[in-house]
């Protein structure tokens, strides 16, 4: 069988690798010249170098992503800096670190030893997580994260210093809007998993080099077929035929539509209408997207931080939008030295400002909150990248479609499918894997040993 994959992001490439393992011939169509989708390498004229389109991290719980990298022959230890979970604020007001004890004592020890919270607050944090575990990580339907935290009597300080940054990092959706059940799933697989599941993995290389660029050279043993990547080809037309599908006039036996939900909607609505098809398209149309901004600063000299990533206290009312400060001083050869990244999740408030005002305000916030670390060196250059459709809004009651669609020989993949995860990299990889498995089962192709 000859399978087309529309989209060279993490979901589409994950599907392509699995399909290749099953012995199919695969052609990946990617509109951009660089692979990776919303987690990719981009050129920064301001910094004179290639950069990521946003600072992403992985977790030890991202088992499918790590397995995929190993299957591609990559050394995950060399490509990813691994450290135990550490939530340390730049101003020194909060410090929580997972300890070396076995699970679940590593989390209990982290909460008990957290600085910046009172004893009663820490005990309530333990109580709410243990209660969630007893309920098998299930929350009441329709609950927001803020409502769940209120039921668990979490203090405003605990919410501000721990739960809110965690929620924004995982779901890119504010706690008063975010789905508690999706958040609980993240907690289950990270904080509630084995000791290393909550480890933070920071890429040492750009996101395209991390693994997407390696897909073209992937040749699994004993696999027939081929893998072809067509960069710079935005698929405009999708049609059903009696024996398969056509993409821009070229015939394939099946297709995986692996763009974001709006892009998938534009293509799938070209297929023959049906009641089931209308319901599927309605689910795609219901997604709302939220932005993430990353401000990269090139400093005059190295600025060594105590941790590769530090918490910033955001306060939009004071024009303080940043939530995380990343030390980018140790970069691969050829990249500019002395870089730091400031990440702004749910960047809607910041985007309402003029670009230069937003940059100046974020630099001022980082300077103010990091005074105890020594004066920030002079900023030589800066660049801000805004991914306007970084993630879908992870709100309660959101219906997410399956990989299978109502149209024969048409499958979908993306972090927006019903993976049980929010719009994170692991969800995209799992969705691609599941789409490939569905095609393999439908074709009755034997699975690889």
What is the residue-averaged pLDDT?
94
Strand content: 15-25%
Reported CATH architecture of the largest domain: 3-Layer(bba) Sandwich
Helix content: 25-40%
Shape: globular
What's the total helix number? 14
Oligomerization state of this entry?
A: single chain
Main-sheet strand order equals 10-2-1-14-20
Describe this structure in words.
This is Squalene-associated FAD-dependent desaturase. One of its GO terms (molecular function) is oxidoreductase activity. It comes from Pollutimonas bauzanensis. Residues 11-439 form the Amine oxidase domain. The protein is α+β, with helices and mostly antiparallel strands and 449 residues long. The chain has three domains: 2-39 and 210-287 and 401-444, FAD/NAD(P)-binding domain; 85-198, protoporphyrinogen ix oxidase, domain 3 (Orthogonal Bundle), CATH 1.10.3110; 289-392, Alpha-Beta Complex (Polyamine Oxidase, Chain A, domain 2). Helices cover 32% and strands 21% of the residues. The protein contains 14 helices and 20 strands. It has helices at residues 10-21, 63-71, 76-79, 105-112, 119-134, 145-151, 156-171, 180-189, 207-210, 261-268, 275-285, 348-351, 355-369, 425-443, and strands spanning 2-6, 25-30, 41-44, 49-52, 58-59, 80-83, 86-88, 95-97, 200-203, 227-231, 238-240, 245-247, 250-252, 254-257, 289-299, 309-311, 324-328, 339-344, 379-392, 410-412. The chain has a five-stranded parallel beta sheet with strand order 10-2-1-14-20, sandwiched between helices. It has a five-stranded antiparallel beta sheet with strand order 16-17-18-15-19, covered by helices on one side. It has a three-stranded antiparallel beta sheet with strand order 5-9-6.
């Amino acid at each position: 069988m000859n399978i087309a994959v529309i989209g060279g992001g993490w979901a589409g490439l994950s599907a392509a690798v699995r399909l290749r393992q099953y012995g199919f011939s695969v052609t990946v169509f990617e509109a951009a010249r660089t692979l990776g989708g919303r987690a990719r390498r981009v050129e920064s004229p301001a910094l004179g170098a290639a950069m990521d389109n946003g600072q992403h991290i992985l977790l030890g719980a991202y088992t499918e992503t790590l397995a995929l990298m190993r299957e591609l022959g990559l050394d995950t230890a060399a490509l990813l800096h691994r450290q135990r979970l550490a939530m340390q604020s730049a101003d020194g007001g909060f410090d929580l670190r997972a300890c070396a004890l076995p699970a679940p004592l590593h989390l209990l020890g982290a909460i008990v030893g957290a600085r910046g919270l009172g004893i009663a607050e820490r005990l309530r944090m333990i109580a709410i997580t243990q209660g969630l575990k007893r309920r098998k990580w299930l929350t009441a339907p329709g609950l927001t994260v803020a409502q769940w935290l209120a039921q668990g009597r979490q203090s405003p300080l605990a919410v501000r210093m721990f739960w809110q940054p965690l929620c924004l990092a995982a779901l890119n959706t504010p706690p008063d809007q975010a789905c508690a059940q999706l958040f609980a799933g993240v907690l289950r697989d990270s904080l509630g998993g084995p000791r290393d599941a909550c480890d933070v993995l920071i890429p040492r290389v750009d996101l395209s080099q991390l693994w997407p660029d390696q897909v073209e050279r992937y040749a699994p043993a004993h696999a027939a077929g081929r893998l072809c990547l067509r960069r710079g080809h935005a698929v405009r037309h999708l049609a059903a035929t009696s024996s398969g599908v056509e993409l821009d006039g070229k015939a394939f036996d099946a297709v995986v539509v692996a763009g974001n939900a709006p892009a998938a909607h534009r293509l799938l609505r070209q297929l023959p209408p049906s009641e089931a098809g209308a319901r599927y398209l309605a689910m795609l149309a219901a997604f709302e997207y939220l932005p993430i901004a990353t401000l990269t600063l090139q400093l005059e000299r190295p600025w060594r931080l105590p941790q590769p990533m530090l918490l910033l206290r955001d306060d939009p009312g004071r024009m303080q939008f940043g939530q995380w400060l990343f030390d980018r001083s140790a970069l691969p050869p050829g990249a500019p030295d002395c870089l730091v990244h400031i990440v702004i999740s749910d960047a809607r408030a910041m985007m309402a400002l003029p670009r230069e005002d937003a940059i100046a305000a974020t630099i001022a916030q980082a300077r103010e909150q990091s005074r105890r670390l020594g004066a920030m060196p002079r900023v030589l250059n800066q660049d801000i990248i805004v991914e306007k459709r970084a993630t879908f809004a992870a709100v309660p009651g959101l219906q997410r479609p399956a990989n299978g669609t109502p149209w024969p020989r048409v499958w979908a993949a993306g972090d927006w499918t019903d993976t049980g995860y929010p719009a994170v990299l692991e969800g995209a990889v799992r969705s691609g894997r599941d789409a490939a498995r569905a095609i393999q089962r439908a074709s009755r192709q034997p699975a690889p040993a």
